[in-house]
Amino acid sequence: MGTLSTNLHIDQIPEGESRGFKHNGEELFAVKKNGKLFVYRNRCPHLGVDLNWQKDQFLDASRTMIQCANHGALFVIENGKCVSGPCSGRKLISVSVDIIDGIIFTQ
Fold it and tell me: Which listed residue, of 3, 22, 33, 53, carries a Cα 20 to 30 Å from 99's Cα?
């Protein structure tokens, strides 16, 4: 089993939304899509900067893609692959998680 990720409960992330959180000093974020949770490091593969421009704002206006606020790169929610922008073809770094009694644990 992984380690607790700041007491984040899966119900704190509404369907089609994203939430940022810290774990062991590392900035992470989670996106819930179709009942599944996708967790990534909060780092753009292009410049190494945070993806969000405001708290918990990791998605584009349509809420169908992860978007880098710095230069507008778009990433597929399900696999983190960049499909538009200066880092096309590269990926976000995914973080494996377990969900036990609704609590999100990182691995």
Answer: 53
- Other Cβ atoms less than 10 A from the Cβ of 53: the count is 11
Chain segment 23-80, per-residue pLDDT in tens = 888 899 999 999 999 999 999 998 889 999 899 999 999 999 999 999 899 999 999 9
CA angle 25, 73, 20 (to 5 degrees): 30
Residue 19: Cβ within 10 Å count? 19
- Determine the Cα–Cα distance for residues 75 and 88; give it in Å rounded to an integer: 9
**Residue 22 vs residue 76, higher pLDDT:** 76
Cα 79 from Cα 37, distance rounded (Å): 11
Q: Is 72:62 a contact under the CB 8 Å cutoff?
A: no
Is the distance from CB of 106 to CB of 97 less than 8 angstroms?
yes
In 10 A of CB 4, how many CB atoms?
13
